[in-house]
Amino acid sequence: MLYKHDQQKLLRWIALFLIGTFLQFLFYIPTPVLSQNSNSCSNITTPLTSEEQTYARAAWQYFVKNYQPATGFTNSTGGYPSGTLWDMGNYLMALNAARWLNLTDQADFDSRLNKFLTTLNSLKLFEDALPNKVYNAATAKMVDYGNNPLEQGIGWSALDVGRILAAFDVIRTCHPQYNNWLKGIVAKWQVARSLKDGQLFGATVLPDKKTLLVQEGRLGYEEYGARGYQLWGFSAPKAIALEPFKLVEINGVQIPVDNRDFQSTNANNYVVSESYILDGIEFGLQGELADFAARVLDVQKRRFDTTGQLTAVTEDNIDQAPYFLYNTIYANGANWATITDANQPYPQFRSISTKAAFGWRYLFPDNVYAQKVFDAVKDLRSPDDSGYYAGIYEESKQPNKALTGNTNGLILEILYYKARGNHPLIASTSVSLSTSKPSENASPATPSNQPNSTGNPSENASPATPANQPNSTVTTPIATPADTSKPTEVAVAPIPPVDSPQPSSQLKLDRPLTPVERRYAEAAWRYFQANYHSKSGLIDDRSDFKGATLWGLGDYLAALHAARSLDTITPKEFDQRTRHLLAALTKLPLFAGELPSRGYDTRTLQPVDYGGNPVPEGNGWSALDLGRMLAALYNLKSCHPEYTTAVDKIVLDWSYLRVVREGILSSATVTKEQDGRSLTRVNPETRLGYEEYAARAFQLWGFNLDRSAVGGEYQTASVEGLKVPIQRHRTDTNSKNQYTVSNPFVLYGLEFGLDPKMRSLFEPIFEAQAERYRRTGIFTASATTLIDRKPYTVHSTITGQGDPWVALGDNGQPVPKGRVVSTAVAFAYHALLPENKYSQQLLQGTTDLYNPLVGFYEGFYETTGKTAVGFTSSTNSIILQSLLYKVMNRQPLIRPTSTMKSPWWQEVTKGNSGRGLPKTAIQRIKLISDSSGSYWVSGGEKTPLVTGTKVTE
Predict the structure, then answer these.
(1) 159-163, 204-208, 688-692: least confidently modelled range
(2) Which of 254, 214, 216 lies closest to 236 in space, CA to CA?
(3) Do residues 793 and 801 touch, judged by C-beta distance below 8 A?
(4) Residues 697-720: tens digit of each pLDDT
(5) Of all residues in the chain, what percent carry a pLDDT higher than 90?
(6) At 695, is the secondary structure helix, strand, or coil?
(7) What was the pLDDT predicted at 444?
(8) Residue 436 forms beta bridges with which residues?
(9) 366 with 380: CB under 8 angstroms?
């Protein structure tokens, strides 16, 4: 009996211990902790200016004056002791920013946060599940929106939960000693109750006191809230996806709008600024959300351009009834609607939002309009030092004197983002990016071992191509979050100033740009502003990868010339950029001491492979890339002869012994053997169109390339009843061209004109696309383009691997529904064939496909009409060149040189250079004109009136 009694006693003690452990977890009662600095959060790389410090101190004063010492909470609006979970999230973000901006000391920070979390941990929850939608900030009691106490509460907001979960993540990252406390709070909440079918669900109380779960969130806020959940391991894949949405044209801009409207769901589908601003400063704008944000800013600028009314709209408290309004770009079928939550209109109270203006100013620091609207509100502070007012009424021009934690908290968060060097507050690796469909989990931030290419000719061959073939290359991945560590950037000093431009060097234009054309030119040039490395003088081939090929740098030099000729940039900017680029070209390490390598890091100028990985010895050269650069350098000398000596110095450093052989172009690749040796292999170039273009460029410098230049026999395939060229008939290599696209042919036409031989290739390529449109109604501008998802590069072919109209990835595999209508090709076709009805229709479909901050997009998808997000130097360069071609009365962009006495020709004349220079000092091609136009032809051709090349089936 004694043994049995002791056993029962022991079991009771075990049971009590287990119950106590469970209760400790359920009712987590932490002890106060003191923060320790987190290096990443305290890393202020761009300190606030004295003026910005004034902004920050003013915003922090709101929280100082609206602090509730009994609870540690702050009032959501000035003097009104109420607050939602969203407001609490705002305060935590503001408190963290204030600490790192030295607006409060460590003791005050810890005191405030300990009190706040103590109260938050003890809050009464709605149905013991999740925090109520609103609490009295002074007492921490559940209330309704009128601050009236309610025992049951009024439900929860999933979006507000997402907001505070994001704030929790920032606190635990920057102050890790609070991590366990925060984990205990989240563990008490039944977060899973707010998730259903992959979406966010809030709770509301019906008149009969029953609880109804309702889906929460529309495009913008829904994705933001879902990311907060994801930070704590809660998945909402449908919420994080962008679908369902449509594009609505407002003031000439296609704006993304949620398909779920008020009439069918009793919820507003408003489009406002704040959700995109929050996404930008906290998670970093990426993928389609970056595109959407730029559109949302641009449409507000367009409204200002049209009406003269500064516009920065988002939701805000106001200082009179109805006290809270949504100032929108679009809501429930109406543009520029100002509504209540119940969709009641109040257009007379539309206002310029202070927080929105601050957000756009620091998210897009180079945007002129963002600066302009910011200047209107930057001093809109309360005279009694109570913080920033919410905004300025558009109609009365009077301040909206509402003082809120939302406005002042967001200002502090934005200024902290600026002080961190515009580095997002939350690591991008913590969450997924929004995609068009929930099932598409591929992120634009692809793993470093995933191939991707820029669309440049030296980068488009399939990785599966045998290494002994001349086109075998690897491809360029989009930069990953792991790539964010910045290498030491090399500072390149520009070459010394050159002679003043000669009056004759400025191109004579047939007419000025129209206002619309000028807008396009300025948009295209934006790419080269946004992707310029001010230290090295280089431009990235693509906006998401810090690397360049010689082809891409040739694009940049051609764009520079076009922008100057169109008066898009000043002579001073042109000169500074040109001298900087020429200096950088002299610093590029040469492969085997002969020629520029295939790729370079635009920050360090060191050779890299197409994956961005360092290859100190280089990875070969591309004859096609060299041709692109030689064409651009030749035209620089012709149109701006003051740079002649500097240009010739660069090209005379190179050796051409192996790139020009027996009248053909060859490229070098490097392969790794099993024993670790690196072997260089040199093989002929065979890329249809690209080979012909590069050969013409080499001929400008006197090289004999009769076997690579356009001409000879071409094999064709029947596409839409037309004989479309697929490859040159040749016996010097077994390599085959994989596909036919428009890119090299339109570039050839713009720069060299359409000589009869090239025209015989160009015309069936264009007509096949026009005929497909006439037959199917599908816009077709077949090209190699970049996209922001797998397979990242798509070759929308006229014919590829024996099939017409197939879209291929770099691996040669078909890409279903992947065909893209190329913006660049549409512009070029219209420039070359302005009277053609199809080229006119094609241009109309693509002209507004640009982001005013970073340039033109690659195009749009044939099947959906949605924008193909991606930005490259190639696309924006061709658009600038197309615009220049139009105003030059359709003359070839490359102009003949005025002298043969330059250093290059002097060295050629000397002979025996040991570097493969031409044997005689003559250009191999000349510019002529006839009834069909102007074009460059080989000097040995007896007549330009050739009807076409021989073709074989």
Answers:
(1) 204-208
(2) 216
(3) no
(4) 999 999 999 999 999 899 999 999
(5) 70
(6) helix
(7) 25
(8) none
(9) no
Alpha carbons 510 and 518: distance in angstroms, whole number = 15
List, as own/partner pairs, every contact residues 58-61 make where C-beta atoms lie below 8 angstroms and the sequence separation is at least 24, other chains included. 58/381, 58/382, 58/385, 58/387, 58/388, 58/408, 59/94, 59/387, 59/388, 59/407, 59/408, 59/409, 59/411, 59/412, 59/415, 60/94, 60/98, 60/103, 60/104, 60/408, 60/412, 61/385, 61/386, 61/387
> CA-to-CA distance for 134 and 117, rounded, in angstroms?
16
**Upstream peptide bond of 347 is cis (omega within 30 degrees of 0):** no
422's CB contacts (< 8 A; 6+ apart) are 46, 362, 363, 365
Average pLDDT, the chain: 86
Listed residue (162, 132, 129) closest to 236, CA to CA: 162
> 655: how many CB neighbours lie within 10 A of its CB?
17
Question: What single-letter amino acid sits at 322?
Answer: P
- Residue position matching structure tokens 């890119």: 743
Residue at token pair 């906006």: 543
Q: How far apart are CA 490 and CA 536, in angstroms?
A: 6
- pLDDT for res 432: 55
Quick check: helix, strand or coil at residue 559? helix
Q: How far is CA 510 from CA 95, 130, 428, 822, in A?
A: 61, 69, 50, 27
**CA atoms of 388 and 355, how far apart (whole Å):** 9
Q: What is the value of pTM for the model shown?
A: 0.60
Pairing of strands 714-719, 951-952: parallel
Note every long-range contact of 174-180, with CB atoms under 8 Å and residues 24 or more positions apart, other chains counting.
174/38, 174/40, 174/41, 174/42, 174/96, 174/99, 174/100, 175/35, 175/36, 175/38, 175/96, 175/113, 176/36, 176/38, 177/33, 177/34, 177/35, 177/36, 178/33, 178/35, 178/113, 178/117, 180/30
Q: How far is CA 758 from CA 458, 834, 948, 951, in A?
A: 21, 18, 8, 13
CA torsion 192-194-199-202 (nearest 10°) is 180
Amino acid letter, residue 157 = S
CA atoms of 745 and 763, how far apart (whole Å): 10
Structure tokens at 915: 């570097």
Question: Which residue matches tokens 């690796």?
Answer: 429
CA distance 494 to 821: 39
For the beta carbon of residue 466, count every other beta carbon within 10 angstroms: 11
Query: What's the rounded mean pLDDT across residues 875-902?
Result: 93
pLDDT tens digit sequence for 495-518 = 999 887 655 456 788 999 998 999
CA 289 to chain CA centroid, Å, is 9
pLDDT greater than 70 at residue 532:
yes
| Higher per-residue pLDDT: 31 or 278 | 278
Strand partners, 135: 83, 142
Measured torsion, CA atoms of residues 895, 900, 906, 907, in degrees rounded to the nearest 10: 30
Q: Which residues pair with 684 in a beta bridge?
A: 666
Phi, psi of 10 (to 5 degrees): -65, -40
Q: Which amino acid is at 67?
A: Y
Tokens of 431: 């969450």
pLDDT (0 to 100) of residue 866: 85
The residue with tokens 């998670």 is 283
CA dist., res. 76 & res. 87, Å (int): 6
State the pLDDT confidence band at 404, using cuts at 50, 70 and 90: very high
Q: Of 533, 523, 573, which is closest to residue 553 (Cα–Cα)?
A: 533
State how far the alpha carbon of 273 is from the alpha carbons of 55, 227, 806, in Å: 20, 18, 40
The token pair at 741 is 């696209």
Half-sphere exposure of residue 269, counting CA atoms within 13 Å on the CB side?
Answer: 22
Interatomic CA distance for residues 417 and 84, integer angstroms: 24
CA gap 399, 421 in Å, rounded: 31
CB 217 within 8 A of CB 239: yes
With b for 16 or more beta-carbon neighbours within 10 A and e for fewer, the 86-120 pattern comes to bbbbbbbbbbbbbbbbebbeeeebbbbbbbbbebb
